[in-house]
Amino acid sequence: MEYEYGFIQRIVELVSKKINWSPLHVADYPVGLESQMQEVKVLLDVGSDDVVHMLGIHRLGGVGKMTIATAVYNSIADHFEALCFLENVRETSKKHGLEHLQSNLLSDTIAHDKLIGVKQGISIIQHKLQQQKILLILDDVDKRE
């Protein structure tokens, strides 16, 4: 009985996330976006399972990296159990610290509320997020840590 309850609860959560998801705004005039978006999707190989994919888009500022990332996010979101789009990572980490970014990531993906510190955030991210297929977009990252 408890197994059935957990199974039903998981289905409700997944359906709820799909129903409540709304696409992010992409540029009003996305000139040349489709070909760049397709290139990124091929590199990510979204249809494959059990593999972690990481892709960095780096160019000069103001040339559409965020637009490409947003369009790709919208087009592949339905392949993932959880979604998180963290904007302005560099600025946010300087103003509020890594703990704030970790909290945003965890609240978007597993509905986790309060962190005690960065080390706890790392531990939770390592253990909880490995159990889900997650699409995570980080905008404006300037350091690996």
UniProtKB/TrEMBL annotation:
The UniProt entry's coiled-coil ranges are none
Read off the Gene3D superfamilies from this record. Answer: P-loop containing nucleotide triphosphate hydrolases
Q: Which Gene Ontology molecular function entries are recorded, alphabetically?
A: ADP binding
Q: Which GO BP terms apply?
A: defense response
Question: Which parts of the chain span the membrane according to its record?
Answer: none
Pfam families registered for this protein in UniProt: NB-ARC
Please state every residue range assigned to the domain named NB-ARC.
35-143
Q: Which PANTHER family match?
A: ADP-RIBOSYL CYCLASE_CYCLIC ADP-RIBOSE HYDROLASE (PTHR11017:SF431), LEUCINE-RICH REPEAT-CONTAINING PROTEIN (PTHR11017)
| Name of this chain's protein | Putative disease resistance protein
* Organism per entry: Glycine soja (Wild soybean)
